[in-house]
Amino acid sequence: MLKKLLFSSTMRKTIALFSIVAILVCIVPSSSAGTDAKIVITGVKPTELSPGDTKAITLTVKNAGSNDAKQVTFNFQESQYISVVGSSSVCINSINGWCSKDMVITVHVSEGAPGGTYSIPVTCTFSQYDSSGSQGSVTESMPKVSYSIVFRVVGGAIIDVSDVDMAELNPGEETKLKFSITNIGNSPLQDLVFSWNEREGVILPVYSDNTKYIEYIDVGESIELEYTVVADVNAEAGLYQLDLSCEFEAGNGGSREINTTTGVFVGGETDFDVTFSESSAGQTSLSVANTGNNPALSVTVRIPQQENFEVRGSTASIVGNLDEGDYTIVSFQVTPSQRNAAQDNNLKVLIEYTDATGVRRTVEKTVLIQFMDISSDGSQLNTRMGQQESIWQNSTLIVTSAILGLIIGGFIYYKKRKSVILRKKKE
Fold first, then answer.
1. Are strands 309-312 and 316-322 parallel, antiparallel or unpaired?
2. Per-residue pLDDT at 386 exceeds 60
3. pLDDT at residue 329 tops 90
4. Per-residue pLDDT for 419 more than 70?
5. Of the candidates 168, 158, 169, 175, the residue with the CA atom closest to the CA atom of residue 223
6. In contact, 115 and 154? CB cutoff 8 Å
7. Which residue has the higher pLDDT, 61 or 338?
8. Is 415 exposed, middle or buried (0-12, 13-18, 19+ CB in 10 A)?
9. Do the beta carbons of residue 37 and residue 65 sit within 8 Å?
10. Which CATH superfamily includes the segment(s) 158-266?
11. Which listed CATH number (2.60.40.10, 1.10.10.650, 3.40.190.10, 2.60.210.10) goes with 39-153?
12. SS3 384
């Protein structure tokens, strides 16, 4: 009897417990229901910038909910000194629940930005995808979320390549190359090491290496660095990139490095040597040689109009191409001008050519011409002969000369005859 009573009591308690659980199950939502998607920015690298920097920034974005996030779109706004380069809107197609993704943006810091902390406002819009509900899969828009990305701007320097003595280098020739470094930050710079490098090894420093040490540059001040450089004699004409690097002591006790680039042009010009070769029969020959380090294309030698000389016939001679070390002979009919009273025999010669970069150039040379004396003597002889021929062509002059000859001959004959008669009388 006691066992029956105990069993009946236990059964009643068990049934009551199950009833309570069933009621709670109906009232409380199922624990398997998903939590709303929640987008947060969990990481920003790097956060330290300098005036003038343009850097890639990596943002780590996390979905802190179990539902998937779709079409996650970030819109970045500008601040006083920091702005996003390119599109200000970045979209991530989806981020699964409890997962993270990285996205990269590029920011620029104004060159005159003072040191301090600055933030970029950001807004985010997205939709969530819920597949755990009793009504099936559901996609719904979520409220807009706002953030701020914080950066710290520290004092720094900007390399300003403001002066290159020769914007164009000629192969094999020494050239001065100058760089100007200006501190536009908000604190002095100490222990700077500046260097440059040309990757192909075509442009190299001479008399020193490519590194210079600078002890101190105050705020707003500049310092000039000078190198002597030479381009390889076999360098092809064109633009060459110089990689510049400046490492200096940072305000936090460490060091910072700024890298930038500039361009140096290696030209395709060449030079010529023009010498007098010979002069005969009215022809003056000149020897033209390419003495530079680049070929000369479509060469034309020209005698320009000048006071001391006259050119009969063509004043230009087309040569063609002259490689380095090649030479040719050109001839012109050059004679001294009647105005050349001072006997100045320095002849101006123009050499027109196309250099290795396709630029048409002109080089002027002066050549001492030596006219042969026999030419002038021959001219005088011909003049005298012409005068003699003109005398015998004058009939009046011929008759007069014949009569004068007869009179002189008769007088001589009379004197001789008289001398013979006198001698006979004495005998």
1. unpaired
2. no
3. yes
4. no
5. 158
6. yes
7. 61
8. exposed
9. yes
10. Immunoglobulins (2.60.40.10)
11. 2.60.40.10
12. helix
Scored b (16 or more CB within 10 A) or e, 198-226 reads beeebbeeeeeebebebeebeeeeebeee
Instruction: Give, rounded to a whole angstrom, the gap between the first and last alpha carbons of the chain.
Output: 229
How do the domains of the chain map onto residue ranges? 39-153, 158-266, 272-372
Token digits of residue 193:
């090491």
Place of tokens 């004699």: 233
Which range of 184-188, 232-236, 274-278, 369-373 scores highest in mean pLDDT? It is 274-278
Neighbours of 288 (CB within 10 A): 24
Strands 283-290 and 272-280: antiparallel
For residue 29, say if its preceding peptide bond is cis, omega within 30 degrees of 0: no
Q: Alpha-carbon distance 146 to 127, whole Å?
A: 15
Q: Report phi then psi at 144, rounded to 5.
A: -65, 140
For the domain covering 272-372, report its CATH number. Answer: 2.60.40
How far is C-alpha 75 from the geometric centre of its chain's CA atoms? 38
